[in-house]
Write a structure and sequence with these properties.
Elements lengths: L2 H7 L13 H18 L4 E3 L9 H5 L7 E8 L4 H18 L3 E5 L16 E10 L27 H11 L10 E5 L5 E5 L5 H16 L8
Antiparallel strand pairs: 1-2, 2-4, 3-4, 5-6
The protein binds flavin mononucleotide.
Flavin mononucleotide binds next to strand 3 and helix 6.
Length: 224
Amino acid sequence: MTLLEAIAARHSVRSYHDRPLADDARAALQQAIARANAEGGLNIQLVENDPSAFAGFLAHYGKFRGVRDYLVLAGAKAPDLDERIGYWGEQLVLLAQTLGLNTCWVALTYTKNAERVSLAPGDRLRCVISLGYGTTQGAGHRIKQYADVVATPVEADAPEWFRCGVEAALLAPTAVNQQKFRFALRPDGTVEAKARWGFYAKIDLGIVKYHFELGAAPHKVVWA
Ligand SMILES: Cc1cc2nc3c(=O)[nH]c(=O)nc-3n(C[C@H](O)[C@H](O)[C@H](O)COP(=O)(O)O)c2cc1C
């Protein structure tokens, strides 16, 4: 499965089989986590076999079942922390999809287990991503259309790569499916991506920028 196929196949999955990660999946994830932490300046951790984080009332209310493994997304406090968490976290989400795993970004409906998470002083734990072999592959839902998320009229005859970037971004997960992002193509060929106010909208922005880059490839996106 390519990353573009993973974008199309991915839906949030909240119910998982009680099955540990395969060794090769774990190794691939650990390698990608090490890269994300080094290049993204983050402190992402894989926590395995810890059902406690999703055993509380909130997780049940949020319909989570059988979560045993998850990614903790943390990093030192900084103005762009959320966007980096979104950008690098979504790389792990799409990698997981190619490894036959399912995922769900989770900002609210989990309980922090301090014994299983090691944060550096000053680190902020912003959210987690549940991970595992889903009992289903999830389901599609209503999403915005191209015209809803681009600034007009410049993009009316935008190049193919810009359109493909936006289409890939429209398939990205966002908090409460808010999709509060907009893309604009500038006359100099750079792309402006903006998030309107919303819960975790800056994490969403990082997520959709990664999708946009994958959709626009092989064009190399230069962000405004
Ligand atoms: C930053 C972020 C936080 C999220 N937090 C939660 C959460 O706390 N509980 C939950 O059930 N889903 C959560 N989600 C999943 C969204 O509800 C889901 O991505 C959205 O409804 C779109 O559905 P899809 O992922 O299947 O495309 C979150 C998603 C993102 C991107």
